[in-house]
Each structure stands twice: as structure tokens, then as C-alpha cells.
UniProtKB/TrEMBL annotation:
Compartment(s) of residence: Cell membrane
Source organism of this protein record: Sphaerochaeta globosa (strain ATCC BAA-1886 / DSM 22777 / Buddy)
Name this polypeptide is given: ABC-type transporter, integral membrane subunit
Highest taxon of the lineage: Bacteria
Lineage of source species: Bacteria, Pseudomonadati, Spirochaetota, Spirochaetia, Spirochaetales
Membrane topology, from the record: Multi-pass membrane protein
Family the entry assigns: Belongs to the binding-protein-dependent transport system permease family.
Transmembrane annotation, as ranges: 21-43, 63-90, 145-167, 179-200
InterPro entries in UniProt: ABC_transp_perm/SBD, MetI-like, MetI-like_sf
Length: 213
């Protein structure tokens, strides 16, 4: 009952923080897509470099978020910009890995058939490889979005706003109401992103691939 009262009194501020949190997620994942998808395509054309690049991206992913935010704070100050830079870096690996995997797993017979009817390399990419790889790529975007929802709560430490503000305020004041005011919407948001992108993934997956799965 006390928690409901707290949520009711602070509903406007919580909605504003939720909006900030969603913006952080959408912008960072969007930037991650802009970087990771072209890079993933490039790696499928230079497969010798792929293990090194993927290993490097995986190594960066293992660095704790607080450490990355600390470096961003030193070089970029406080606010939204350093938070977006760190979140974008973290969003890259799942999308990059799935883009590379999705395209490399397209059967050679499909590409050979496309070349046989006179398609250029770019036409094969955009009309055959990417459409067939799209469900796998979207799966990577789904993983990335769910991760970033949770990691974005750290952004409150450097003044980027979002639901993390409530969590860190609660930890600083030993007030569980504030902690739950940030944690509960974050969890719901993660489930919502996962369900929405999962639904989109099903829509764009060809029926034949769904049957095989």
C-alpha cells in the first residue's frame, strides 16, 4: 500500500524518467545498428579478419559498465553524451555477431541461383542475403535492447537521467521505495522490448524458415 502511494505521488516524475530511459535505449541501440550491421556485412566479405574483430568486440563487452562509465566521465564529462557513447559500445556486439552469422549461414545455392539470373553482388546482398539473414539480425537487436535497458540504469550515476536516478537515490538514502520505483519499470521495459522485437522477428521470418525451426 505504501509503495502504491509513493508511485501515485511521484507518477509524473517517474513517467519523465521512463521517457528518458526509453530514449537512451532507442538512441544507443539505433547507433549500434548503424555501426554493427555495415561492419558485420564487411566482415562477411573479409572472413579472415572476422575472428579478430569479433573477439575484440567480445573483450570490450566484458569490461564492467562502471569502469566504462568512469572512462567516459574522465574524457567526456557528465550528462547524456558519455552515457550514450558507452551504451552504444555495449549494444554493438550482439548485433554485429548476429549480422555476421546470419549472412554467412545463407545457403550458397541461393547466392549461386541469384548470380545465375544476372544479379550483381550488391543485388545479391540486398535482395537475397540480407532478407534471409534479417530474422537473425533482429534477434541480435532484441538481445542488445534488453541488455541496454538494464545497463542504462547505470547512466544515472553520471547525470544522464532515466530510471537509474531512482535506483541510485534509493541506494544513497536506504529508501526501498525509490529503488523499486526504478527497478520495477526497468524490468517491465526489458520484457516489453523483448516481446515487441520478438513479435517483429516472427513477422519477418519466412514461413518456410519457421517450419524448419
Amino acid at each position: 500500500m505504501r509503495l502504491i502511494t509513493f508511485f501515485s505521488k511521484n507518477s509524473e516524475a517517474m513517467i519523465a524518467s521512463l521517457g528518458q530511459h526509453i530514449a537512451l535505449v532507442l538512441i544507443s541501440v539505433g547507433l549500434g545498428m548503424v555501426i554493427a550491421i555495415p561492419l558485420g556485412i564487411l566482415l562477411t566479405r573479409h572472413k579472415k579478419a572476422a575472428p579478430t574483430v569479433l573477439a575484440l568486440a567480445g573483450t570490450v563487452q566484458t569490461i564492467p559498465g562502471l569502469v566504462m562509465l568512469g572512462f567516459a566521465l574522465i574524457f567526456m564529462g557528465i550528462g547524456t553524451l558519455p552515457a550514450l557513447a558507452v551504451l552504444t559500445i555495449y549494444s554493438i556486439l550482439p548485433i554485429l555477431r548476429n549480422t555476421y552469422t546470419g549472412i554467412t549461414e545463407v545457403l550458397p545455392s541461393y547466392k549461386d541461383a541469384a548470380k545465375g539470373i544476372g544479379m550483381t553482388k550488391s543485388q545479391v546482398l540486398f535482395k537475397v542475403e540480407l532478407p534471409l539473414a534479417l530474422p537473425t539480425i533482429v534477434s541480435g537487436i532484441r538481445i542488445s535492447a534488453v541488455y541496454i535497458v538494464s545497463w542504462a540504469t547505470l547512466a544515472g550515476m553520471i547525470g544522464a537521467g532515466g530510471l537509474g536516478d531512482w535506483i541510485w537515490t534509493g541506494l544513497a538514502t536506504y529508501n526501498t521505495d525509490y529503488i523499486l520505483a526504478g527497478a520495477i519499470p526497468s524490468a517491465i521495459l526489458a520484457f516489453a522490448f523483448s516481446a515487441l522485437i520478438g513479435f517483429l522477428q516472427k513477422l519477418i521470418t519466412p514461413r518456410a524458415l519457421r517450419r524448419n525451426a
